[in-house]
Amino acid sequence: MNSQTTRIREIPYNYTSFSDREIAIRYLGEPMWQTIEQLRATRRTGRSARMLFEVLGDLWVIDRNPYLQDDLLDNPKRRAALTEALRHRVRQMRERSEGNALALELIAAIDAAIARFERQLDEQVALRSRVAKRLGQVTRRDNVRFDGLARVAHVTDATDWRVEYPFVVICPDTEAEVAAIVSACIELGLTIVPRGGGTGYTGGAIPLDARSAVINTEKLEALSAVEWRELPGVDGQVATVRAGAGVVTRRVSDLAGLHGLVFAVDPTSQDASTIGGNIAMNAGGKKAVLWGTTLDNLVSWTMVTPDGHWLEVERLNHNLGRIHDQETVSFRLTRRAADGSPLGEPETLSMPGASLRKAGLGKDVTDKFLGGLPGVQKEGCDGLITSGVFVLHRMPKHIRTVCLEFFGTDLAEAVPAIVEIKDYLDRRTGVVMSGLEHLDERYVKAVKYT
User: Fold this and answer.
1) Per CATH, which fold does 223-393 belong to?
2) What does the alpha-carbon distance between residue 433 and residue 55 come to, in Å, rounded to a whole number?
3) DSSP for 82-104?
4) In this structure, are strands 237-244 and 227-230 parallel, antiparallel, or unpaired?
5) Domain residues of the chain, as ranges?
6) pTM higher than 0.70
7) Which residues of the chain have pLDDT under 50?
8) Which CATH class is domain 140-216?
9) Residue 194: closest CA among 159, 165, 170, 222
10) pLDDT tens-digit profile of 73-114?
């Protein structure tokens, strides 16, 4: 029996969720991990193995730490000293290999990984210069950030899932800059990741490629006054508000409240989420029961498409309520070039309202396509939302809040009771259910409800 404790992780400096196997495959490939496993049984002192894992650990800790990267990129001599230290270990391993074919094959793979690492650092220096110069033509230079703090702050969202650090973070000052920024990123070969408040739980704002440009829209915070206006196909004037993609959701709710109105988009994250993310995620909230989700309440929205063009989507014949209750839903799509010049004629997109949501659902997350409607519920995959115009509502004159308490743990009894209550209210005239919220044990504890 081997009394020596087996080490789960042999690669030093690895404080991530990646295993030794995943890191080795990342740098050396799957076949070389199999070689490492084969050589494991032939170890005598384990010194060569330790040097191997030290090399992988050095590569990994630098790849996963933007602050170390900044230090190396700013100091060519330190960069050269690091790569020389890595190669020194490889030479030591080669001297100790005793002609073992498997070991020599593995050493060659490590040598190649170090060469790639060195080349990538040099390429980063050159690419940073190119990106800064090109983006500096369309936005202020200090809006283009390569520093460790910016990259660390934009590596994940509310999921806390980390895959790749963004290469650059771009923070445009105005909505007008966004199309030119997107075009520049395309020209530079960067993968674009739109980001708002970073409150999403689906990973839509997480970079998956090392050459990613995160476009942070938080400075697009223009918020109009409440405006009563006529909408296409709607009788009378309707209360509306226009909000930039970076406006925090709560600000719109507060503005509506000052005028005795209601903003129907009220996700739990409304104190941190932003309008761009609300549109891209089709956010809902407590009031979705009465007025639907973000999609139902949009008058129009503006976005930049993946080819760097402007696209404005305007809803026609708005029913000022839940979109799936309308027989036919129509939108007018108007495209413009980055400089604002028209691209073709506007087109109309129509679909049955019922097709946008499965029966009985307030929000259908299974349907990302939504009849080909751009922007909404696409999580930033078909463009970048820059602003939106919303309808505002009035709450009924009399409001009552009813709390139902269910004892025990049997949901089989609770769920039918809730459904019956909703069906009962739906059959009555003059009574409308405006919201429905579930308070479980953890929620009750969090709000200190007694």
Assistant:
1) 3.30.465
2) 63
3) HHHHHHHHHHHHHHTSTT-HHHH
4) antiparallel
5) 20-135, 140-216, 223-393, 397-449
6) yes
7) 1-6
8) alpha beta
9) 170
10) 999 999 999 999 999 999 999 999 999 999 999 999 999 999
